[in-house]
Amino acid sequence: MLKFDEKGLIPVVVQDATSGEVLMLGYADKEALQRTLDSGEVWFYSRSRQELWHKGATSGSILKLHSIAKDCDSDAILIRAEPTGPVCHTGNWSCFFQQLEDEDTV
To answer: What is the pLDDT of residues 18-68, one digit of tens each?
Structure first.
């Protein structure tokens, strides 16, 4: 059984099913996961807007579901997906395109 946090969310790491590149980190609630399974396209829960979010609804760059796995503690999910375009809202293919700088550390 999946372990959701106190807000009913679970972290979701999205990986490109072909290249293996990590594309993004999002969060899902039970409804987002069910919609992902039912539709074959990835859904999230937006913490900032506090609503369900169908990845690509605005940009057109959807994530086609290939597989879902849970980690050993059942408190995080790995989704392998096929992106139809850039995943990051900045237009970059992946959200992980910035190197950590010294001033970023605490």
So the answer is: 999 999 999 999 999 999 999 999 999 999 999 999 998 888 899 999 999
Predicted local distance difference test score (pLDDT) of residue 103: 81
- Supply the DSSP string of 3-33, one letter for each residue: ---TTS-EEEEEEETTT--EEEEEEE-HHHH
18-88 CATH: 3.10.20.810
- Structure pTM? 0.92
Kindly report the length of the chain.
106
What are residue 41's phi and psi, to 5 degrees?
A: -125, 150
Q: Taking the domains of the chain in order of start, what are their residue ranges? A: 18-88
Residue pair 84/59 in contact (Cβ under 8 Å)? The answer is no
Question: Could you count the other beta carbons within 10 Å of the beta carbon of residue 14?
Answer: 25
Distance CA 27, CA 36 (A): 12
